[in-house]
TrEMBL record:
The lineage of its organism: Bacteria, Pseudomonadati, Bacteroidota, Cytophagia, Cytophagales. One of its GO terms (cellular component) is cytoplasm. It comes from the Bacteria. Pfam families: RimK (PF08443). It comes from Rufibacter latericius. This is ATP-grasp domain-containing protein. The keyword Repressor does not apply. Gene3D superfamilies: 3.40.50.20, ATP-grasp fold, A domain (3.30.1490.20), ATP-grasp fold, B domain (3.30.470.20). Transmembrane segments: none annotated.
Amino acid sequence: MSTSASTKPIAIYHEHPDWFKPLFEELDARGIPYVRLNAAEHTYDLAEDETPYSLFFNRMSPSAYLRGNENGIFYTLGLLGHLERTGTPTVNGHKAFQYETNKALQLSLLQSLGLPYPKARVINHASQAVKAAEGLRFPVVVKANIGGSGAGIVKYDSVESLAQSVANNEIDLGIDHTALVQEFIPARGGYIHRVETLGGKYLYAIKVYTTGESFNLCPADICQTTTGVELVRNACALDAPKNGLKVEGYTPEQEVIDAIEAIMQNSGIDVGGIEYIIDDRDGQIYYYDVNALSNFVADAVNVIGFNPHKKLVDFLEKKAQLVTEEV
């Protein structure tokens, strides 16, 4: 098929039914041609050398296995490699998705950048969990290497409870049979920080208030501000009332912004978020999660003062337009 660059649509590749409605609404409002591709049921032709898209936006989620769509996770790595080989411009491409689906690789990047993160060891068998915990401060968490939405994280308050869980065959290493044994950090102020980026640059930041026992901190799930105002949720509407999370906007120090931009630029993540925490015991900052699938906070205008989806579509439109001009 020969399609002129000017008429090629933007491809939005995803498997979650709700998370990207605000993105679609903004694309529709501007009349920008796009197609939705179901990452859970997809095929591609290895012999196809001409791209049918002006841009391919990867919105595949590592938590897809929670929705029975785990088949899309490893498949997506091959697809992105193929697209890049054929010259299809991608947003959150192969390199970014490698980091998205490998928490161990994320921490390795933080180590290379000299940025602090909660001390961790990597295991590929539950029998190694107790040994990996030697020298770590308890509590620790066993964290599946491929997670998302807080999935695959279990907290242990003592080495005895960890050993008992191993003995009872209760340790789940996740779908790639790899996990972190990592120090649990008590959050100063009862909140974690999440900084969103676009094009490798700072976009906005929020504080997410949590009990410390829940690991699902999806910003689209948050239903209330710290002042008690109920937010209009743009995604996860069924789950959001259950988590009790509260949110407020803030601006980080420049040193934090610089560190986060370095993480994103070195990981190849075009659109994403970084979470960090301040240890209540000593005030140390720790970066601990790198997200390429970044869901913007619900009711963003009321939380951060602007609609990030407008800026996201500005970014996508510019990327697609640059492709058109090059062709």
